[in-house]
Design a protein that fits this description.
This protein is of the alpha+beta class and 82 residues long. Helix content is 18%, strand content 15%. The strands form two sheets. A two-stranded antiparallel ribbon has the order 1-4. The longest helix has 10 residues. The radius of gyration is 12 Å and the shape is elongated.
Length: 82
């Protein structure tokens, strides 16, 4: 299940709100690599099986839109945004 925090388009710098965080469920990830193709600065791939993990749990403001798109494009719904 993908859980997304609301996107505040009027305030893209997140002033006054908490930073968005991301996590990849290793049990659900099947290594499709769509998240990495969508947000290569936010996700890294395992050299052996191609499974994804977040580079950092904290998502920089300039990567938030790409991370949300990656979560929506994940066929396994392995990416959690909170």
């Amino acid at each position: 299940m993908v859980r997304l925090a609301p996107l505040n388009r009027r305030n893209p710098t997140r002033k006054g709100r908490q930073a968005v965080k991301v996590r990849v469920d290793p049990e659900r990830c099947q290594g499709h690599t769509l998240c990495w193709m969508t947000a290569p600065k936010a996700f890294q791939l395992d050299d052996i099986d191609g499974h994804s993990s977040a580079v950092s749990e904290d998502v920089p403001a300039d990567q938030e839109e790409d991370v949300r798109e990656a979560a929506h494009s994940c066929p396994e719904r392995a990416i959690e945004i909170f």
